[in-house]
Amino acid sequence: MLEKIYKTWRKLPIKHWQVVNAGLIIYDILAVNAAFLLALWLRFDCQISTVPEYYLEAFFKFAPIYTVLCILIFWYCKLYKSIWRFASYNELLRTIFATVITFIVQVIGITVLFERMPISYYLFGIVLQFFAVLGIRFSYRLVLLLKDRQDKRNSEEETTRVMIIGAGEAGRTIARELMISREVQNKVCCFIDDNPNKWGRHIEGVPVVGNRDDIMKYAQKLRIDRILYAIPTSTAEDKRDILHICKETDCELMTLPGIYQMVNGEVTMAAMKNVTIDDLLGREPIKADMQQVYDFLQGKVVLITGAGGSIGSVSAMQVAAHSPKQLILFDMYENNVYELEQEMRTTYPELDLVVLVGSVRDSRRINSVFETYKPDVVYHAAAHKHVPLMETSPNEAIKNNTIGTYKTAYAAMMNGCQRFVLISTDKAVNPTNIMGASKRLCEMIIQTFDHMVKSGRVQELPKLFAHAEDEDGSMKHHKEISDIKTEFVAVRFGNVLGSNGSVIPLFKKQIAKGGPVTVTHPDIIRYFMTIPEAVSLVLLAGTYAEGGEIFVLDMGSAVRIDTLARNLIKLSGFKPDVDIKIEYTGLRPGEKLYEEKLMAEEGLKSTPNHLIHIGCPIPFDMDNFIVQLQELMIACYDNCEDIRSMVEAMVPTYHPAGEHGSEERGNVYEEQRREMENK
Predict the structure, then answer these.
(1) How high is the pLDDT of residue 674?
(2) Burial (Cβ within 10 Å: 0-12, 13-18, ≥19) of residue 118
(3) What's the CA gap between 142 and 329, in Å, rounded?
(4) With left for phi above 0 and alpha for psi between -120 and 50, is residue 456 left, alpha or beta?
(5) What is the pTM of this model?
(6) Which residue ranges make up each domain of the chain?
(7) Distance between CA atoms of 628 and 648, rounded to whole angstroms?
């Protein structure tokens, strides 16, 4: 029977609040009676034996009546409907009102029905009742608050403590979102701002504690885990200085991309991004006057070789934006150029786009492309660029980079191309590897072609064939010598962030795996630029060309690769050599400690853009160079094992690593190192 009753009770839809209310009713029954009984006890010197019997009799007779009336009044005043977890001023008022009503009931009821009680009985009794009824309810709230506080303290280790750089509108908005967000477990501990008028004040209840010089102090004092950079209008220099301070704190860094987020109402945590190395390069983004590029390319047929590569693909996208008559993408690897084609047909549906697969080493193929499409402008980006790989395959570097450039330039010249732009590299300067030496040979080819065109000696340029059976070859004279006006130029720049083979993607992958991060040498330095920046300057330099120039892009100060690795580890929220190890693997085959933008023999001339300079060409015997180039082609196609010695004879500045190259720092490196240390 009891078991049946228990099962029936378990099935009843009893809620938590109903149990709480039942408990409160029982408590109130005891409390209201105990309060007035205690009042009698206090009235007669705290001795129950001295209380007159008629007072006790009146009390016990009126108690049941008073109890029922109190419960009804409490119910009417909603003392059993409030959520006491959130009790506030309204609940206090209702309790006071209920107390006043029950006081009147007590005074009138017991006096009229049974006995006039001592005045102190009424006063002590109602006061004790008020505190008893109110106390249990607000103590419940207090206990829950204390429990919540303790739970918060217990979970504080899981909460990310945040410092916001910038006490402006962006910082205030980010702070507010963090405070109200349930999805993001962040606690904003302080603001940092360089404006002294804001120091000591509070924004959204969070103090502004000082300027950038106080970042280290408060990051340690407040145990900051994450720093949010929320000054979208700051200059690149200010941003660099502040972020350099922040990265010394070992905190994770995030930054707000730009002011347009504020205009668009997008200043949210979703707009924050992880700080990248781009943010620490310490300069404003490079902006080229693309109107000149537009005027130059509009209505022209443009060919890009190596279009599927990092530089080639971005070049294709930027050229497409300048209304060419036709854009031809040429690459020997179909996968990359296919993906580029799909993207471009979606982005530029009206563009006359031609995508061709072929090799610049194939004279028949490259000439047929020029003969069919007659491009006006060529951006020659096709090249093998990986230094260590080319060290093990030097003949392939010469075939593709050097001979491929010659064949492409020859086809351009013989088919009426207006301008040929070679995309070179700073590895061509005092090269210690075959890749750099092959690109230096490309620059010399460009200078030779330009000289021959301007001097009317085009017929003296040999036809270098890939096919032994060719006599006249695939390279036929399609233009009269007097009509050839092709301008040949080269553009030289350093490393680009995010390109194939760049250290940044490699470092990110290594960090994601938990390390180690591999750096070849602690002192190795490089110049860096973003791919869009480099391409825009290449296109702009092409508009300045008059023929024969080697344009040199100003890429700012050299950056130590070890510093890049350490910064990237810190910006990922880890400690270098603690969380993520850094290993020095030694210089790879052909690798330099330093890179140079120009040789000592080359001076610099200015252009309308202060980031584009012209290196004065180094004189060399072009007639002898042409003879050597023919011999080099035959040797590389015969896979000559002594190809490096032939290249050394042609490129006086080429010294293979291990002899005069990478192990020696040289004066240039020392000057660059001192420059970095002084900053």
Answers:
(1) 52
(2) middle
(3) 73
(4) left
(5) 0.61
(6) 16-154, 159-275, 290-654
(7) 11
